[in-house]
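Weekly structure sync - notes
Attendees: PM, LS, DV (DV joined late)
Agenda: review two folding runs queued last week.

Item 1: First target. Sequence and structure tokens pasted below for the record.
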Amino acid sequence: MSAVTVAPVRDRLLEAIRREFMPLRSGAEMLARAAKKTPRAARNWLSDKNAPDAEALIELMASSENLRNEVLMLVAERQHARGADTCPGSKSGCDAGLFG
């Protein structure tokens, strides 16, 4: 990765989750349903104790345009920070190898 500093992914993700669900009266329960996880897991995310696993993150991205956009923004920032870095075995670099 280049010298460009990027914010920690976990912190940005949890902040986006809090922005989306903390203002809601039953935010933890709604978050749990959206992620297909337990209310306890959702409360842990909202209190910054844990972060969602990959499966829960995909569920949240599928249910919330705001969270999806935040994750895509994080990806774009990482792509920009990498610049011309490429993955071994990829014709067009890391990004094409993952999504192309």
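Item 2: Second target, run right after the first with the same settings.
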Amino acid sequence: MTSPINPTRPRVLIVGGGFSGVACARRLERVLKADEADIVLVTPLDYELYLPLLPQVAAGVLTPQSIAVSLRRVLRRTRIVPGTALGVDLDSRECVVRLITDQEVREGYDIVVLASGSVTRSFDIPGVPEIAHGMKNLAEAVAMRDHVIAQLDLADAAVCPAERDARLRFVVVGGGYAGTETAAHLQRLTVAATYRYPGLTRQSIEWHLVDVSPRLMPELGPRLGDRALARLRRRGIEVSLGVSVAAAGPGWVELTDGRRLPTHTLVWTAGVAASPLVASTGAKTVRGRLAVTAELTLPGHDEVFALGDAAAVPDLVAGGDAICPPTAQHALRQGRTAGNNVAARLRGRSLSQYRHHDLGLVVDLGGLGSVARPLGIPLSGLPAQLVTRGYHLLALPTLVARIRVATNWMLHAVAGDDFVRTGFLAGQPSTIRAMEHTDAYLTTDEVHAAADSEKSARTRQAPRAS
């Protein structure tokens, strides 16, 4: 048991507005009295994004607003700082934040919760950051929809057969849930759109899904994985396993099996890496994620908690050296555990270990092609579709979000799609490098240098202030 911290009112700083960060803030608001601590959340956006439904936004099944849950609706006492955390100084207990105005400020804390999430991992393959499109945020999903419809428009108007074929060839890299669902939903979008384009046919469109793994979605198990693979191939998606991208450039993608595919669309969903904010702490990492205890604390720093995609949380259920996978299911529950443990830390009580039994997996392939394994029970077809959509509705944090999503599903089933490009991001690059801004974060040395500069500035101003 540790002794409680107390100046007058301690400050809890939560970095990240994803599943784990928001769940932590909500739990703290629930278990702490208003005068026990100030709760501050640093996030560049004023909404929590329900990531599992992002492919359906890209495909036009859902509107962007339906999966963007207002933080002002779910958080009542938390002060929201609209900015991106660029670095954390564990020595001075400060976080460097770039506000949405581009102004840099330093947010101090007594306890910090690092829930900064993850970014797309590109594995340093030539051309991928500059050419590929990601699927990690709402802007990328909206831009992807516009891009895919633009390819159909350009192909329909093309005179050159080679250009037309390249416009109608789409490559998705990543055979996990994000990549499989993205390929499945966008392929359905393009096939449905051919009925509105006089110069296009279903047979003229090519979708390729490639993954270096020998199995599609191995977490589902061989039976369901093979069933999902068969469904995708029946729809006309060419799935290449044991294959990845060797290089990419404007108008082409080269695969590791020697094929060179002329294409203007490369979607990259081949895994994630912890936010570069992790490196700024200088703390020990495991597979790029912060090494933490089962209580979600950073060894040697009782005031630092880390969770979600940013942390290598020990998986006590699996045992051994296993760490929890970076899934929404774990992030949400780790956020609640972190909230309870932060409250316990403030009150000088013992902390609880994070332990969670997997509830199962759901994969929405569109139509009746879903596969699911709730509580270990393998399902496919209509039962899987009902379970999958029911799970998503229950997982959404507000009633309003559930109503919006359910209404969107019904409207799309009845009215279909108009295949409209919004043009909101027209003229702006929508590649991984342009959208995720991973080069903005500070190194450990830069964080310390900024702290020293701040202290020097305060020292110089002190005599004038007196």
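Discussion on item 2: The first strand starts at residue 11 and ends at 15.
Action: LS to circulate a short write-up before next sync.
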